[in-house]
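Q: What would this chain look like folded?
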Amino acid sequence: MTRHESEGRRLFVLDTNVLMHDPTSLFRFDEHDIFLPMVVLEELDNHKRGHSEVSRNARQASRFLDELMGAADGDMAEGISLDAIRPRGANGEPDATGGGHGHLYFQTEVRANPLPEKLPGNKPDNDILGVTLALCEDLPDADITVVSKDINLRIKAAVLGLRAEDYFNDQVLEDVDLLYSGQKELPADFWSQQSGRELASWQEEGRTLYRVTHPVARELHPNQFIWSPGEEGPEGVVRRVEGETVEFELVQDHGHTPVWGIRARNRGQNHALNLLMDPEIDFVSLVGQAGTGKTLLTLAAALTQTLDESRYSEVIMTRVTIPVGEDIGFLPGTEEEKMGPWMGALRDNLEVLSEGNDGGSWGRQATNDVLMNRIRVHSLNFMRGRTFLNKFVIIDEAQNLTSKQMKTLITRAGPGTKMVCLGNVAQIDTPYLTETTSGLTYVVDRFKDWEHAGHVTLERGERSRLADFASENL
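A: My prediction, written as C-alpha cells:
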C-alpha cells in the first residue's frame, strides 16, 4: 500500500487468534483494508493439525487465503480484493457478509524490528507489534489498528502508542445485563387500563387464556412469562402478540403439582418447568448461577416425559469437556465411560431424583440403574453428522460453546426432539469467549421471537443456606 492509497483509509492488522476464533473475520471489516504479518501465517500453519475447533478454524482461514490468492490478479504488494470470493457457511450457502470490502495485504518484506530490546512477551506477539510500528512509519496518514483477542497484546500495543481493539463482530450484545430474561413484571396499571379496551377470557382444551390490549404488549415475546405486581392478578405465558394485543395462557403451578417428585420452589423454577413440560416448545434455554436448579429441573422433566409419558425414546446428555473440545481418548473405556468424570452433576441429581424410593439403599441403587439405562451420555466430539429422532437432548455447560458449535449441535435435532441448553454465562472457561460472545448468549437472543422456543433466567439459588451465603459473600 502506497502513502497515497493510505490517505483516509483504515488498516487493520489481524492477530492469529482472530482468524482462529472466526475464519470469516477476513470479510467482516466492511470497506477497510486488512494486513497480515508473516508470523500470522506461520502460526496458522502450526495450529492447523488436529480435530479441535481451533484447528478446524485455522484450516478454514488458510483455505480462504488460498482462494483469495487464486483469485488475485496483479502484484500482491498492491493488495488482493476481498470481494474476489464469497465465503460459504456450514449449509453451503454464501455467507451474508455484505459487499464493498477493502483489500488484503501481506507482509512482503522483512523490516528491522523497532521494538525495545528487552520488551517482554512471546516472539510472535512482538513480531506483530514490530510490523505494526513499521507500518506506522511507512504510512503516517493511515489509521492503523491492531485487532486481537489477546488482552495482554492489546495492553502492550497501547504501551507502545499503538491503537488496539478486540474483535467485536461476533458480540451478540453490548452488555450481558441486556440479555433477554424470558420474564417480565407487568406495569401496575396493566389491568386498571382495560376498561373500554378489548379484554377476553376463554377455555381451550383445559387451558385458560386471556386476550388483553395494552402498550406493553409491544415489548413482549412468544413464551415469555408475565405477572402482575404483588400477589394479585393472573400469572401467564405469552402465546401470541399482535401490535398492542397479547394473548397469554395461565401457567401451571408446579409448586403444588410435582414433576418426578420435584416441586418448584420459586417463580423462576415454576416458569422453567412449564417450558420443559410443554410439548409445543422444541428449544429451551435456562441460564442461572450454580444452585438455581437448572440440571435437576431438566432431568425431572426429561424422565417424566420419557419414562411416564413415552413422549421421547431416551434422554441424551452432553457437555463440553475440560480442556474444552480436546480429545478425551486418554481415558479408558467406552464413550460414556470416558465422559464419566465430566458428568458428576448428572449423578448428583439422579441421587436426588431417586430419594423418594421406599426400597432403601438397594431400591435407590436399582432405580438409579434403571434411570441410567434411559440416559445416554455423549461427547461433543462425536456429534457431527448425527440426527436425533424423538430424543430429549440436554446440553450442559452451554456457556462454553461458541455460536458455531451451538449451531452444529442444535441442527442435529430431528422430528420429535426437544433440546435444552443449560449454563451460567458468568463461568466461561473457553479461551477468547466472553459473556457477550458465548454461544449460549447467541441462542437466547436469536430464539426469543420463535413461537416454539422459550427461555428463563433463574436468579434464586435453592441449593443450601451455606451455598447461598457463599454466592453472596465470597
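The first helix runs from residue 3 to 6.
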